[in-house]
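BUG: 3D viewer hangs when loading the predicted structure for this chain

Environment: internal workstation, default settings.
Expected: structure renders.
Actual: progress bar stalls at 90%.

Input used:
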Amino acid sequence: MALFLFLVLVAVVLGIIGVAASGLGYLLVIGIAVFVVALAFAAIRVSRRSVRRPSR
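Structure tokens produced before the viewer hung:
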């Protein structure tokens, strides 16, 4: 969970810098890519937890 939050924070910071600074639009693209990776990471973790069923 900490890794997910860190990736989201990095994505937001890169996005803000990319929008605010002229000529650094590539940081916005990198921020969006990091955010997509964070969402994929979270989706994989959630799907792994829902597949496991406790054995009796």
